[in-house]
Each structure stands twice: as C-alpha cells, then as structure tokens.
Specification:
about 120 residues; mainly beta; 5 strands
Length: about 120
C-alpha cells in the first residue's frame, strides 16, 4: 500500500521490559476525492524504519491488522485495532500530494453522482 506520511510521532517506551512503539499518520490517496488518514504503528526494532523519512514523503508499506480485546471496570468489552507496519520503503519519484485540491464549485463526485458518498 502506498501512503504519504502526514506526521511522525516520537518513540515511546512502556514497562520495565523495554517495549517500544512509534505511531505515525499516513494518508491513503487511492481515492483522491476522499483522502483517508490512517494511524499506523511500528513496534520494537521496527521503530527506526521511519528515521530516514519526513512528512510529505510517499512510502510503500506492508502491515498487519491487529486486534485486542479488553474488558473495562464496568465489564464492557472493548476491541482495539491497529495497523502494525513491518516493512517501509521510499517510493522513487518524490512525494505525493497529501490533500488533493478539489474545485469548491464542483459538488459532483468522480462518477458524476452528487450524492455518492464513500461510506
């Protein structure tokens, strides 16, 4: 998947065992009419994969979707989802536009239907 880096968080450490995590936001422009921000995470030895990159650069990523159940104090179960990146490479040819501009007077979607929403 190709995304444009919007922001890069700091590396965070948790607990006494040295677990580290780094969160960052990538913009999925696969549908330029509706660019989608996605929060990704890198864990442990993968945290440094973002070091050579800056906001605005386009990268190719490989990731796993993760999920975890948690029960709060009231007994309600909550499910957390994450996108754990395990491979990240720069895309040759420079950066992509994070937020493509649309004509403000153009109320029609890409297929011509003004009421067509992506959800």
């Amino acid at each position: 998947m190709k995304v444009v880096i919007e922001s890069i968080g700091e590396i965070q450490s948790f607990g006494d065992n040295g677990f580290t995590k780094r969160e960052w936001v990538g913009i999925d422009n696969s549908n330029p009419t509706y660019p989608t921000p996605i929060k990704f995470e890198l864990i442990k030895d993968k945290c440094s994969l973002l070091d050579p990159f800056t906001a605005g650069q386009e990268v190719e990523i490989s990731y796993n979707i993760t999920g975890r159940r948690w029960t709060n104090a009231q007994g309600k179960e909550i499910i957390f989802n994450g996108f754990q990146v395990w491979k990240l490479e720069g895309v040759t040819g420079g950066t992509g536009d994070m937020h493509p501009q649309r004509d403000a007077n153009d109320a029609t979607a890409a297929d011509g239907d003004p009421d067509d929403l992506p959800f």
